[in-house]
Amino acid sequence: MPRPVPGFVFVGIKGNVVALDRRDGSEVWRTPLKGSQFACVHRDGDLLFATAGGEVFCLDPKTGAVIWHNPLKGLGLGLTTIAGEAASSSNTTAAVVAEVQRQQAAAAAGAAAAAG
Fold first, then answer.
1. Residue ranges of the alpha helices (H) in the chain?
2. Which of 29, 54, 82, 100 meets the CB 3.0–4.6 Å disulfide criterion with 64?
3. What is the per-residue pLDDT for 100?
4. CATH number of domain containing 57
């Protein structure tokens, strides 16, 4: 089984995937995906998968280069989750639940402000 890239932490934020050096937090690479919304990231063996704007991307974890991309045509722009065959998706699920709750709270606040 391929070994993980040593020393990297992968962050999905605002339609980007960012690789940080885990020792000092410095940015190693940044790959813009689609849109400016929530980006979900999942490591599966020697590949890094990310979703943003209703699309899925496969990235090289060493460089951030896009290996392949699937626009998931006809499925809309909603939040997505990713699960590999051998990995648990509990952290991804928790992040998605938190983002949905944040979006719902923002929508409720906007509706209250408009009604007030």
1. 90-115
2. 29
3. 63
4. 2.40.10.480
101 alpha carbon, distance to own chain's centre: 17
Whether the Cβ atoms of residue 15 and residue 28 lie closer than 8 Å to each other: no
Domain that holds residue 22: 8-115
Strand residue runs (E) in the chain: 8-13, 16-21, 27-32, 40-44, 47-52, 55-59, 66-70
| Mean per-residue pLDDT pooled into runs of 10, the chain (116 residues) | 69 94 95 85 91 92 95 80 64 60 75 80
End-to-end Cα spacing for the chain:
58
Report the distance separating Cα 18 and Cα 35, nearest Å: 15
Nearest to 41 by CA among 63, 23, 59: 59
Burial class from Cβ neighbours inside 10 Å (0-12, 13-18, 19+) for residue 107 reads exposed
